[in-house]
Design a protein that fits this description.
By secondary structure, the chain is mainly alpha-helical. Helices cover about 50% and strands about 5% of the residues. It is globular.
Length: about 170
């Protein structure tokens, strides 16, 4: 079994609000926790001798949770959900604030990582998305476009998590 950590709702909220509840060193680690990277991969990225201590702090503080996956089983598919819902998790229609947040995350990251012209048609489709289902249907296309730039690899999974949270009414 490989231990993999994913952000909880509290962890996603901390990413947006920077409450100060965790220090900059631990926050940096939280940024890299994406529900896909193993502890060894995280250690290689942050190069931190006290990684175990920082992970324990994040877990005990409710910022991350453990996801166990057998190597190669594909069990991680549930960690990064495909967005298809048209309503928030409680059955209420998704409010415009959440839709706008998802739109901005998608358009701004496209512009920042690919330039203002390369994926202009996709940016327009995102801007025209009127429902969570409209935007959810574009998440995979957005993900591939942003990943077109290798420099985006450090942030794309975190941005995707925030988009999914917004489209589920949690952001």
């Amino acid at each position: 079994m490989t231990v993999i950590y994913a952000k909880t709702q509290k962890g996603l909220t901390e990413m947006e609000s920077r409450s100060g509840e965790i220090g900059p060193r631990v926050r940096r680690l939280l940024i890299f926790v994406d529900g896909k990277r193993s502890v060894d991969q995280l250690k290689a990225m942050v190069g931190e001798a006290s990684l175990e201590e920082s992970l324990e702090l994040l877990q005990s503080g409710g910022f991350i949770e453990v996801v166990e996956s057998a190597a190669g089983s594909g069990a991680l598919a549930a960690v990064v959900p495909t967005v298809t819902a048209t309503v928030a998790g409680d059955g209420q229609e998704l409010d415009e604030r959440h839709l706008d947040m998802a739109r901005k995350l998608m358009v701004n990251s496209l512009r920042d990582f690919t330039g203002p012209m390369k994926y202009r048609a996709l940016m327009q489709k995102v801007a025209d998305g009127a429902t969570a289902a409209d935007l959810g249907a574009l998440v995979d296309e957005w993900y591939e476009a942003v990943n077109d730039n290798p420099a985006a690899s450090f942030a794309v999974d975190d941005i995707r998590s925030n988009i999914v949270a917004a489209l589920e009414g949690r952001g």
